[in-house]
Structure formats: C-alpha cells, structure tokens
Amino acid sequence: MFLIAGTGARFNASKVEFLKRVFYRAGFHVVQLSSPTSSDFMVNASNTHLPGISRQDASDLYRLMEASLQRISQFNKRLIINGVYLAGYSLGALDAAFVGALDDRKERIGFQRILLINPPVYLERSIHNLDQLTRVKVQGIDDTTGLFNHFFDQLAEYFRRNNHLDVDDSLKEVIGREVETMSDGELALLIGVAFRFSIASLVFTADVMNRTGLIAPDGQKMTVTESRTPFFHRSMHWSFQQYLERMLLPSLNAHRKEQGESLMTRREAFLQSSLPVLERWLKKSQHIGVMHNADDLIIDQPGLTFIYDTFGRRARIYPYGGHMGNLQFSTNVQDMVGFIKTGAFPDA
Question: What is the structure's pLDDT at 195?
Fold first, then answer.
C-alpha cells in the first residue's frame, strides 16, 4: 500500500502515520511518501524542484514508487508482493489519481485499487478557498495583520524545532488549550496562516533549488545554523497563484518554447491539474474510489456534482466532517479499508 501525503506534508505527517496503522492492521505492508510539494520531496525526488503541475508531479511519484518496489524486492527476498494499492489524502489524493492514470498508460505497476480521500476537484477553487481564510475579519480585532504575525511567529518556532511543518501537529500546539476561547474568525485565520506557511516552504525551497533570486539573494550560501525566518516572512507574502506565475510557469514555458510547444497559461495549468481532465478515465476505471465530505471547504457544489456523476457508487460522501476532520472516525476507517479490499462502499 502506497500512501501519498497532503499539501506540504512529509511521509511521517500525523495523518500518514494514522493511515499507515489502519492499513498495516488490515494486512498491508505500507510505503509512506511525502507530498511533491514538501521540501524534502522537492530537494530529493523532483526532477524540476518546481511542483504544482499534476502530471509532472505524478511522473516524479511514479518513478519513486517503481524504485521503492525494486528496493523492497532486493531488501527482502522472501517478501512476495501479490498486489499493489494506492491511497492519498487532500492534494495527495489528486496526486494519486494522476499516478493511477499514468500507470494505466505505462502498465508497469498495476494498482489493484486506488482510494482518493478528500481530494480537490477544481484545484484553483480549492486554493482560492484556503487563501481566503487569511483575509477573514476577526471580530473585536482591528489589526488582523498583528494576529497573522503572531500565528506566524508560533508556526515559525514549531518549524525551527522540528525542521518541518506538520499542519495538524503545529495547529494543535499553537491552539493548545485556547481552542474554546478562540472565535471562528481566529480559527479560520490560523488555518489560513498554516496553509500559507506550507506555500511559503514550497516557494522558499523552489527559489533556493532553482536559484531564482526572488526570495534569497542569488548566490547566497546558507549555513545550517542560519535563520530562515526572514526568508519565510518574505515567502509568506506569496500565494500559490504568484508562485505559479513567477516561478513555475516561466520555467515550464521556457522548456516548452525550446521544444516548439505552445506556452501554458495560468488557467490551463489549473485545468490540467484538476480531476475533470481525467474524467473519461475516472468513469471507466472501476478500481478507483473517492471519499469526501459535503461541507469540506476545498470543494463546492460543482465539485460534488462532478464526483457523483463521475464515480457513482464508487463515491462515499459524508454530510459533515470538513476537510479531513472525520478521517479517524470508525465508520470512515471501515469504509476506506472496505473499498481497498472489496472495491465497494456499503450503502453508497
């Protein structure tokens, strides 16, 4: 069982660890993979160090999965692999869909079943909804920027101590015992800041690896002990859309121009990295299913309609749960294991 982490998350993020325990207890060996948008994947496994185009990210993941299977067979000669499965959550679920479509063409792994957990459907809409949380007006607070910076400082301290950002664990630490005293606006802003922090990490890593000079001065050497906080402050002002327009697309289009191909626009980039571009394959592929929540902030009614129309009985939609909020509920666990083992959801 391969597991792909969500936006900016590493292989050992708390949600990946939970899913590992679920499927290991269900009888699977498990390989945990970082998100292509995490700094460790960008540095060590990406061909371009510029994630964000789903087909390109899927190619990097697929290469890593093939290498993992080869390494496993070399490491343990007695281990017989009699089936390969795949699951991802949030952005990792979108990645899983594109990896599955790639494997359908290459036919080198042959996934038995693929499960998408709370994937974005229209990527631009999902990112817009998360980005809007940083603009929430907090009642009783005139200077939202001050609260933004307060949350940033706390997340930066978590990052400094742990050398990575696990959104779930960092939010728990920042909120602490104050959750009941925080308003909905404060919680929304905190979630928005955490998302921005993931984007900031992506932007900073992409800048350093590609020497763009947009965040860190070009040619500047960084030591292990040097503080990254000033660069993260600068990166926090970047949205994903700005990263797309100022880093990713210029590099991608320079390559496309060399190949004599047409340049890709921002709109095309989002369309090519959303589930509807795989609609025909998703409809015919009976081995792929999806779990989602109707009140998830990264999806809207057109997205839900797409899931119903495309997956039919291979979709399990819960009325409540937000974004991944009900992942650990017993019903959800039974459903995810049930689909992986049987290819169906009860009462779907």
Answer: 84
